[in-house]
Amino acid sequence: MFGLFKKKPKEPTPPKLLDLNNNPIVEGSVVKSLRYELGECVVELEGLEYFYVSKSSGQRISYTKMVDAITENQKVLLLGSSDGAE
C-alpha cells in the first residue's frame, strides 16, 4: 500500500559447493581434482565464482566445469584447508 512491506532484494552470494562425499568446500580449501589432471588444488573465490587452482601447474578451472552430473556435487575430494587447520 505505502511501500511499508516491500521485500528487500537479496544480496547475491557465492554458491554452496560440496565434494563427492558431501563435505562443504570453501575458499582456501585444498582438494584433489578428479578431472582435468589438476592434482591438488586450492579453491579461490573471485567475485561470486569459485576457481580451482592447481598447485603443480597453476591452471585455473571454474567450479562449473567440475559438476558431477549425477549428484550435482563437485568432482573433487576435500583434503583440508590451506591454513593448516583441518
Task: Note the topology.
Layout: E1 17-18, E2 24-25, E3 29-33, E4 40-46, E5 49-54, E6 60-62, E7 76-81
Antiparallel strand pairs: 1-2, 3-4, 3-7, 4-5, 5-6
What would you say this structure looks like, in words?
The N and C termini lie far apart (52 Å). The chain is an all-beta fold. The protein has a domain at 21-80: Roll (SH3 type barrels). It has strands at residues 17-18, 24-25, 29-33, 40-46, 49-54, 60-62, 76-81. The strands form two sheets. The protein has a five-stranded antiparallel β-sheet with strand order 6-5-4-3-7, with no helix packed on it. The chain has a two-stranded antiparallel ribbon with strand order 1-2. The protein has no helices and seven strands. A hairpin with a 6-residue loop joins β3 and β4 (40-46).
Pairing-aware structural class of the strands and helices?
Answer: mainly beta
Strand order of the largest sheet: 6-5-4-3-7
The major pleated sheet works out as: 5 strands, antiparallel
Envelope shape: elongated
Number of strands: 7
According to CATH, what is the class of the domain at 21-80?
Answer: Mainly Beta
CATH topology of the domain at 21-80: the name is SH3 type barrels
Tell me the strand percentage band. 35-45%
Q: How many individual helices?
A: 0
Per CATH, the architecture of the domain at 21-80 is Roll
Question: What pattern of helices and strands is seen along the backbone?
Answer: EEEEEEE
If you average the pLDDT, what whole number results? 90
Rg from alpha-carbon coordinates: 16 Å
Amino-to-carboxy terminus distance: 52 Å
Low-confidence stretches: none
Summarize the amount of helix as a percent range: under 10%
